[in-house]
Amino acid sequence: MKKIVDKNYCMSSFLTFRCIVDNNKTFQEGIEQKTYKPVASENQMACITAKDIDISIRKQLENVDLSKAAILLSGGIDSAILASYMPKGMSAYTALCSAKGAVDETARASNYCKINGLKHVVVDIKWEDYLECIDKLMLNDGCPVFANEPQVYKLAKIIKNDGFDTIIFGDNADMAFGGMDKMLSKDWTYDEWVERFTFVNPDDVLKEAVSMNNVYEKYKKGVKDIDYISFINDIFSISSTGAYVNAFRLAEIKYYDPYAYMKMAEPLDLNRIRSGDSKYLLRDLFRMRYPRMEIPEKIAMARAVDQWLAGWDGPVRKEFKNANKIKNMTGEQKFLIYSLERFLNLIESE
Predict the structure, then answer these.
(1) Whose CA is closest to 262, among 79, 58, 55, 45?
(2) pLDDT digit string (tens) for 265-296?
(3) Which residues contact 69 (CB under 8 A, 6 or more apart)?
(4) How far apart are CA 90 and CA 162, in angstroms?
(5) Beta strands of the chain (E only): which ranges?
(6) In 3D, which of 5, 64, 71, 10 has the Cα closest to residue 35?
(7) Which listed residue, of 18, 116, 170, 349, carries a Cα 20 to 30 Å from 203's Cα?
(8) Largest interatomic CA distance in the chain
(9) Vertex 15: Cα angle to 310 and 151 (nearest 5)
(10) Residue 343 burial by Cβ neighbours in a 10 Å radius (0-12, 13-18, 19+)
């Protein structure tokens, strides 16, 4: 089916959700966006206890040639749990962004490696690395990218160059087991959720913004409520895991996330999550695998875009409004706008 060219829709969708929700639309004729599709529910193991997750991980890894694999390891519990199942001597790769004040997870990741007998490899990430690969990533995906992708791509390229053909990672743990504690912190009304989830409001930066209300309305319940959990599992997972998958595909390396093949057998215990026990089944498994360690606080994937884009003056293309509002945005938001403008420059010069 031929895609509909609708640049204004695609710009607005990307800024709002970090992806193009309508697969039938494209920025430009000949541009094909590769949308990530989550594993179907019928192919996921339903887990009631931490032991169920343990059994699922063990069973899945029987079908992966770990002798040719490496693992992406942060300081969090998701990848730490996976690391505890890896064979001794496996290489574990951790990113470290070169910027003053950037989050540094290397010490914690190194500790996991010592416990599990893994070889720790720290990969330095610079803004120059982003500039080197961002255009390739965007053309590969048919869409602008967000701040995870260049970092993951550099990791993937180094892992492949080091002789490995498969990457083990754990991005889907949050979606599967209730890790989005801030998103799950309350029962949102429809209007509250639209404001909470929207990454960048297109009306703030685009001259011809397109409303994304029709996407949100698919999850509306009653007059004023919204099924935000289904929204997270659908819309958010497409952009979050899709960033990893795009980087892996461009690096031409296989990838495997055991958490993608699991789900909760029972509804999330929101009271437990809201009391500070997010991903409670995984926390239980972490205690089983690391009985002498305290559970670390959740940290989003480290990327130093706040520092790298602190001096960016904003977009200059005709599609964008005056950049005054952009100056007060976070680095993550600025990067989405920067990426969108760079993508438009790229495809219109082809």
Answers:
(1) 45
(2) 999 999 999 999 999 999 999 999 999 998 88
(3) 90, 164, 165, 166, 167, 168, 256
(4) 12
(5) 4-5, 25-26, 45-47, 69-72, 91-97, 119-125, 166-168, 220-221, 225-226, 254-256, 262-264
(6) 10
(7) 349
(8) 57
(9) 55
(10) buried
Both tokens assigned to 194:
């639209």
Amino acid identity for residue 342 in this structure: R
Q: Is the dihedral of CA 41, 44, 45, 49 positive or negative?
A: negative
Identity of the amino acid at 149? E
Q: Report the chain's mean pLDDT, rounded to a whole number.
A: 92
CA distances from 322 to 204, 313, 314, 327, 344 (A): 9, 10, 9, 10, 18
Q: Using CA atoms, how far apart are residues 210 and 213, in angstroms rounded to an integer?
A: 9
Residue 79: per-residue pLDDT: 96
pLDDT at residue 102 in the model: 74
Instruction: Give the whole-angstrom CA distance, residue 90 versus residue 83.
Output: 9
Cα–Cα distance, 340 to 209 (Å, whole number) = 14
Q: Residue 275 to residues 15, 180, 253, 279: CA-CA distances in angstroms?
A: 32, 13, 40, 12
The structure tokens listed for 284 are 């239980």
What is d(CA 197, CA 265) in angstroms, rounded to the nearest whole number?
26
Give every CB contact of residue 161 below 8 A, 6+ residues apart in sequence: none
Whats the size of the chain, residue-wise? Answer: 350
Which of 43-52, 194-203, 263-272, 302-311 shows the lowest per-residue confidence on average (mean pLDDT)? Answer: 302-311
CA distance 124 to 95: 6
pLDDT in tens, 94-134: 999 877 777 778 999 999 999 999 999 999 999 999 999 99
**Are the C-beta atoms of residues 103 and 284 closer than 8 Å to each other?**
no
Least confident among 118-122, 184-188, 324-328:
324-328
